[in-house]
Write a structure and sequence with these properties.
This protein has 2 domains: about 60 residues, Alpha-Beta Plaits, CATH 3.30.70; about 110 residues, Arc Repressor Mutant, subunit A (Orthogonal Bundle), CATH 1.10.10.60. The longest helix is centred in the middle third of the chain and has 19 residues. By secondary structure, the chain is α+β, with helices and mostly antiparallel strands.
Length: about 190
């Protein structure tokens, strides 16, 4: 039985996966695997089904991708998002090795392609997502800054704090206090 992979832009969460699965069901297409940015179907897809899927996904803010470079960009993004947001622990190897290994591409090709299409470097994209993860961990209030720093492989708390401030304009401590202030204000309403 042939399997076909379809690549979908902006598919970065469980909710997105559910939307894609629902759209496939509507078209009578069976999926054999759904990952961030990709779905594998066991049926051949007709041009009419492809166009309907494309239109229906766009209504949900998702986009069916057709060209090879865009597919590779989405794969890079999804490897990074999965690595930072959905893995229990970040890889011990450096990120370039990890991404290269996951995608089976020589890393020297990937950064130029990514920068050309996204307008930022892979490293900047990783930093943005690491800071989003720091925000999430600060809001959960389960780990202190030292533990967050260790979990996300920062060389020190100072390095994490500097990067956080550079990206958000706030220190992690002030960010956390803002959260507590907002919660206090809501309780007084």
């Amino acid at each position: 039985m042939p399997f076909m992979k379809l690549y979908i832009k902006y598919m970065v969460s469980l909710r997105c996966k559910m939307v894609v699965i629902d759209e496939l069901k509507k078209l009578g297409l069976q999926h054999t695997g759904v990952e961030l940015g990709m779905v594998e179907i066991s049926d051949d897809i007709t041009n009419e089904q492809r166009e309907l899927l494309k239109t229906d996904l766009q209504k949900s803010g998702l986009e069916l991708i057709d060209d090879k470079k865009s597919i590779l960009i989405e794969k890079i993004k999804n490897v990074i998002i999965d690595m930072i947001h959905y893995s229990d622990e970040l890889p011990k190897v450096n990120y370039s090795e990890y991404i290269s290994e996951k995608l089976n591409y020589d890393y020297t090709y990937l950064p130029n392609l990514f920068s050309e299409f996204r307008g930022i470097t892979i490293q900047q994209f990783i930093i943005m997502h690491k800071i989003e993860k720091v925000k999430e961990l600060l809001l959960y209030d389960e780990l202190n800054l030292t533990e967050i720093s260790y979990k996300l492989h920062y060389s020190s708390v100072a390095h994490l704090s500097n990067q956080f401030k550079k990206v958000t304009g706030l220190s992690p401590t002030f960010y956390k206090k803002l959260k507590e202030l907002r919660r206090g204000n809501l309780e007084n309403v």
